[in-house]
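Readers of this paper often ask what the protein records in our data store actually look like. Nothing more is needed to write down the fold, since each code stands for a local backbone conformation. Below, we set out a record of this kind in full and without editing:
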Amino acid sequence: MYRSLKMRIEPDSCKLYFKTNGRLPSQFDLNKLCTQIWHNCTFLHRYLYQNAMNETAKRVLQAFAKCEENRRRKERRKSRGKTDKENAELTGSPETGLACPRFRKPSRFCSYTNPLHMEVFTERNGRRMLKISKINGPVRCYNQKTPVSGVPRTCTIEKVDKGTHTEYYACLSCWDDIERRRGDEYLSGRSPDAVGIDMGVSKTATLSNGTVYGNDHMYSKLLDLFRKRHEAFSSMLPGTPGYRKARSRLSHLYGRLRGIRRNNVETISRQIVDSFDIICMEDLQIGKLKRKSRGKRMTNAYDDASLGMLRRRLIDKAIEAGRRIILVDPKWTSQVCCGCGACVKKGLEVRTHVCPECGLVMDRDLNSAVNVLIWGLTGNPFPERWDE
């Protein structure tokens, strides 16, 4: 009841505020609305804190701001060729309306965030327990070996429906006083460490220093198990206990695959960002690469490598850590010799680069990573004669 009431009142308030003032309300304005709801609806005091309501208001405001930004971006694209005055009237006038996010049903509202003002962990019989607000008694944690460094500031509880049961996950954001390298401060007295990254299917990432992160092809390894689970699920009658049990097993298997892929991406991106100051990587368009795939096995390999997610996480972590990201045109990176600059054309089946002019022999992906590093640092494009 709270979620439906809360999510309906705040969008209406944002619409009314935008219609009156020509802009979205601030976080402080929505917090005042939350305070009024808190005082008028006393039944909410049994289920959540007011801080959780403020965090929900923050989500609503972020959703409106993102939708409005997307709307203005689309209208700017449509208005190309018009005068600056016409563009300003088109993109900034309140009469154009407000782009609103779609209403999410209470059943789809599966998480909430609550700021922490006390110790969140306790121990019982040598096991780590999690204390969550408005829940009687501590909750047992399954991942006992996962270290939690720093002081927890917020806790996001997420509910995941597994068919036969429901699982809950707690995501903690922690603060610590560890001084990290940011901006240009860590470059004083030494030259920055730069690296070139070649991303592909057979090897997820190859660095210019020779480090290789392989592709585990986890989907191919679990393919037989996926087929068995799908056959068992399709043979069950919907609504029966066996149907719910088969669906739960299938969702567990897909969750396991997603977890493995995400863990690989997070591990690779964190190691690269922590080790290098300047990161040169190919400006790949993963969708176009997958459409040019030579078969289902290669398409599955693209999914296992998660190249799009790896690129996003590299950029996000590099920005957060103050690193410099340089995107390089991927054209000809694997065909050009990094030693002499000669163009040695080869197909995807050729995995070794052999230069007939300078005699350089090395791995194809390593040659591409070195080219990405050189082109990223120097900014020199490939000669026009190679494009013929």
DSSP finds eleven helices and 13 strands in the chain. The longest strand covers residues 151-161.
